[in-house]
Every structure is written in structure tokens, then in C-alpha cells.
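Dock benzoic acid; give full complex structure.
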Amino acid sequence: MRNVTQDNITDVFLGYFGKETDPRMREVMESLARHLHEFAKEVKLTHAEWQTGIAFLERMTEFTDAERHEFVLLSDVLGLSSLVDMINSNPQGTSSSVLGPFHITGAPDIPLGHDMKRHYEGEVLLACGRITDTEGEPIEGAKIDIWQTAPNGLYSSQDPDQDTYSFHGIQTTGADGKYGFTTVKPVSYTVPTDGPVGDILTATGRHPWRPSHLHYIVTAPGYRQLVTEIFPDDDPYLDQDTVFGVREDLVMKYVEQAAETFPDGYELSGNIAEQYLMADFDLKLVEEGG
Ligand code: BEZ
Ligand code: FE
């Protein structure tokens, strides 16, 4: 087509597709091109703005490697990651939430009652619950991959003072579906702001904070993998998570418990002042294909 205009460029673009193009590829590319072209026309994108955009993407690649996933972070702060989570979630199970860039593979297996807190300062939190199906029946042999920040708000991969797997571990449920471990009460923290995504937050007057949370990935044979996080109801950033990860059913309550009620079977000992916090939270998995 030699007579390309503002009005026909989207159709011309779509007309260039080969006949054998995969139908899903066609559907996604068609919609992407339509929205992209409309966007440029709607805001009357200038050359200078287009150049700024290209320079931004080039800078994004400079900040991206196997450990630093700046594109994932961009998707997170734009709300795209959370939208994809919500589009693909099944309301019968626990909601999913952003994976974030700090999950690491190869975390050690930890027994029920394991202490992740060790020598770290902070309030003791006992996190526990059951992994069940959508009917509330316990799932045996489910694996829960757990991670969180240290009290300084840093994940182990961000902090040379932490062991590789500090505040990371994987538990496997028994017949009662229970998981449980002690840790420090998580803190609110900021997403990395030293790269181009930080510049976007600054340019739009946004803060970089996330409410405190525990991350879980739950897997069990025959069930859909659940990637999620749970948040205490008293966190000041609960209603303004910069990556939009909070869902109503992921909000939990810390219940204060007297030290003498601390249950048997937990590794932590002699480390509780007068009380500890408990977060009792069940996680519901949806069957595969559901
Ligand atoms: C996190 O919770 O680890 C996280 C999620 C999205 C962006 C940055 C961090
Ligand atoms: Fe996190």
C-alpha cells in the first residue's frame, strides 16, 4: 500500500500479516496495533516525545539482567502485572498477586515449625494456616515456597549482609494441610527507584512503597499454581500499593498472643518477649483446568 494515511494505517498494518499467522498471535497483535495507533493519535505524540520513549526503553535494557528485572517492575507499576493476575484468576480460590522480582529458585526445604527469624531483631510473627481445595478439604503434599524481606526491608538478593536463602524456604504439607513457621514481622518497603522505573514514579508524583507482606507460591499435583502475597490489615500502605497487589481476600489480621501460649513443635525458643503475633491464613487452591 503506497497511500498510507492516519485513518488507514492500522488496517494496512493488519493486511501485511501472512495467511499462516497463528490466530492468537493475530488477535493479540491486531488489538495491540489498534490501541497503539489510537494512543499516538489521541495524545498527538510529538517526535520529541517519541524519542524520549525510545530512549527510556533503551535505558530499561541497561538496567535489566538475570537478577534485575526492570521490565517486570515497569509492568508492575503500570498495573499490567496485576491486571493479568486478575484476568486469569478463579474466584473460587485464593486470589493471586504479583510475583515481583525477588523470588529465587532453590530455596531449602524447611520443616513445619521452622524458625526463619533466627538472630534477626524484630517482633516475632508466627505465620500458619492450611492449604485446602475450594471445598476447604486439606491438601496433602502441597508445597509452599515462602519469601520475605529482612527487617531492613531488603530481600536476600539485594543485601550482601544476608545469606543467599535468608527469609526463604519451602514447606510441604502433611495430611492436615498445615503449614507454619516463625519469622520477623514484615516491614513496608520501597521498590527499586534507582532505574528508569523510579524516574517514571518521580515524574508522575508517585511514591515507591509497598505494604508489608509475606510471599507464597503454592503448588500441589492436580491443582493450579498459586502465586500470592498476604498483607496485614494495619499497614499504612495497604490502600496505596505502588504495584496494585492488594486484594480484599489477601488481607489478614495479626493477633497478639501471650508468650506462654506459644505452641509446641516450633523451633523458635527463648526469643519471645511478652507476646508474639500470629497470622493464621488459609490458602485455597483451584483444581487444574479450573
Ligand atoms: C515484591 O513484592 O517483592 C515486589 C513486587 C513488585 C515489584 C517490586 C517488588
Ligand atoms: Fe515483596
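Observed: The chain has six helices and 13 strands.
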